UniProtKB/TrEMBL annotation:
Its main location: membrane. This is Cation:proton antiporter. Residues 14-399 form the Cation/H+ exchanger transmembrane domain. Coiled coil: none annotated. It comes from the Bacteria. It holds the Pfam family Na_H_Exchanger.
Length: 409
């Protein structure tokens, strides 16, 4: 019970600090995720030893479930933050990013892991799948603050939000393919991947998201027209929808993470007007309340000994993945992405593809399904590298771009 009270104190106190100092933190090199991670390290076994996660049961399973919940609520916030018509008006850009860019990032990350660490190809592919998605939680901390809104174009922020919202769920097939090839005969693996994974777990999740999102949106409109809805209930309804979709998605063995994002988009087509004023509250709740616990937990269970065992190869891999996983792909795809009108915003889009909570989720999923903890070790090292490098450069790059735009506009 004492551990629980310490955890509640730390999480609540940190959320208050981040909320009260949101503007200075937004303009500093210390992002909220990195701040929470460092606090977790300070309180954990390698710091003050006030919290000992080893007594909480299976820490990787705890991380997996916490990451899934955090992703779900974050994806709902992203879906509500986007203009309702955005995915339909900009579907070509999303198809390019998700259909060409994401597989390319998967292959680049996998080949870099294979070449630098010398792992078996299937293991390298699993790690490449875990890190290929653009994380919505860390991305939100980069593109939703005052600095981003003041300096970065709206089109860029919407494009990165929609990409990060969709590709977390779509990373699932890339992670599962090497797992299936490792655990089943090749013919059975490909059949399950095309049939079960793509047709049911991905396709079924889209169907579940559309039905539940549209249904709850219609129910909200029905309740409001009859005077049954108290306006402040909107936030609780969106959070309840997230939990409903996560639960139904898991019960039906579909990809519940993708289902939440689709449900948010479908819900957003049915609501409007005064309800949309609450969207910022949804996202703010995600940033302050839910980013904190997941990264505090990450700091508590960070595998420092395993990271040290990787040595210079781990550092080299982190640098190469951050430099080559995304930037060359975005530069090559720029002609098909109208939101990237000038080269500076193209370079920013190519640079800020953070690795975060989605990688924590998939790394634990790989570990639980295969027993290979190396995916957890390498994946979490890349998450730490992304938090440090992307967190430290987000505000300076955004402000530099703002000055450039003022000078040449």
């Amino acid at each position: 019970m004492e551990q629980l009270n310490v955890g509640l104190t730390v999480t609540g106190g940190l959320a208050l600090v981040v909320g009260l100092l949101s503007s200075p933190l937004d303009r500093s090199w210390l992002s909220a995720p990195l701040f929470a991670f460092l606090l977790g390290v300070a309180l954990g076994p390698y710091g003050l030893q006030w919290l000992d996660p080893t007594g909480w049961g299976d820490t990787k399973q705890l991380m997996q479930e916490t990451a899934k919940l955090t992703l779900g609520i974050s994806l709902m916030g992203i879906a509500l933050r986007l203009p309702p018509s955005y995915p339909f008006h900009h579907w070509r850009s999303l198809v390019v990013l998700l259909g060409i860019g994401m597989p390319a990032m998967f292959l680049i990350s996998s080949l870099l892991t294979y070449g630098v660490l010398g792992l078996p190809l299937l293991m390298a592919l699993m790690i490449g799948g875990a890190v290929c998605a653009t994380d919505p939680v860390v991305a939100s901390s980069i593109i939703t603050g005052g600095v981003a809104k003041e300096n970065l174009p709206e089109g860029y922020r919407h494009l990165l939000s929609s990409e990060s919202g969709a590709n977390d769920g779509l990373a699932y097939p890339f992670v599962l393919l090497p797992i299936l090839l490792l655990t089943l005969p090749a013919g059975d693996a490909w059949r399950d991947w095309l049939g079960m994974i793509w047709l049911w777990e991905v396709g079924g999740s889209v169907l579940v998201g559309i039905v539940l999102g549209w249904g709850v949106g219609r129910a909200l409109e029905w309740s409001e027209t009859r005077g049954y809805l108290d306006q402040p209930s909107f936030l609780s309804i969106t959070l309840a929808l997230t939990l409903l979709v996560l639960g139904v998605g898991e019960l039906l063995s579909t990809n519940s993470i993708l289902a939440v994002f689709v449900a948010g988009l479908a819900f957003d087509q049915e609501v409007g007007g005064s309800e949309r004023s609450e969207e910022d509250n949804v996202q703010e709740a995600v940033n302050i309340l839910l980013t904190m616990p997941i990264f505090i937990l990450f700091g508590l269970i960070a595998p420092w000994d395993e990271w040290r065992a990787l040595g210079t190869q781990g550092v080299l891999l982190a640098l190469l993945v951050l430099a080559l996983r995304r930037l060359p792909v975005i530069v090559l795809l720029r002609p098909w992405l109208p939101a990237l009108r000038d080269w500076p915003i193209t370079l920013i889009m190519g640079w800020f593809g953070p690795i975060g909570v989605s990688t924590l989720y998939y790394a634990t999923l790989i570990s639980s399904r295969t027993g290979y903890d190396l995916a957890w070790t390498v994946g979490t090292l890349l998450v730490l590298a992304s938090m440090v490098v992307h967190g430290m450069t987000a505000a300076p790059f955004a402000m530099r771009y703002g000055r450039w735009r003022q000078r040449y506009s």
